[in-house]
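Everyone, describe these structure tokens:
***
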Amino acid sequence: MDKQGLKRVILIDSYMPGVVTEIKIDGHTNITGRNGFGKTSFLRLLPIFYGDNPSNHIKRDEGKNFGFAKYYLPRLGSAIIYEYQVGSSLKTAVFTALPTSDSQYRQIFIDAEFDLSLFLDTESGNPFDSSGLISRISSKGYGYLAVKTNKEYRNVLLESSGGQYSLSRGRKKLSNLTPLLSSMFKKEANFDDLALFVQDWCKENLESDARRNLESLSINKRDIDAILLDFDSISKVNLLKDKAPELRTSIDNLSRVIADLVAIRTTANARVAANDQFVDDSTKQVQLLSSEITKEKASESLFLR
């Protein structure tokens, strides 16, 4: 089965004037270069393909802000081309400059793989003016679809209503992924972004009764905290289950030690009691002998008189 998704990005006379840059991203891609070479500027283009609003990506340089069109599409020959795969065929999504404005841009889907001759005069090496792009596409016999807004672009690419240009199949609505992908790219993704995605998915895919039940579901934060605490405790106990045999052996050994200590204590108590009795008996005998000696001394004293 063919792998769907973005295959390569081509920049023509973009933020690097007069240069045609092509980067394949259908596998593991490593982008290297010195600072200021344009690595981050290129990476910002990836979430834009998947529907992120280009206005979210402003280039800041020497204290000045450059909007998307002014930075990435500064000349009439400037173009950003995304080649992507749908099923077994390749499509192209193009962002070009507009001759009427340096702050706006045009988005066109082309039902064909990337064709350099649509954008560049192969003899002179100079980029074509973007105003003639539609006529060049038509002369090649390629199908195309021009969209007016970023929302329309996102719907065509990521919802099943986009037809031949859509990455979505069946009832899937991939546009819900755009905010999450954008946040992940910016390293700002959090639980709220994921929760919003799950919520939107539920609204789109669950049956009406299930959606109503979900909307009416009320969960107390204390209950959630208690559940998480219980889960954490259970998880810690589960981590110890492999040590249970060792623990049982230790408990058995401890029980035997305690039994031995009890026996020793009983024996010791008996010996102490016996010693106490011996001391008592010895004391009585000493007292008796002492009394007899005293009496004998008294008798001898009378006899001598």
In short: The chain is about 50% helix and 15% strand.
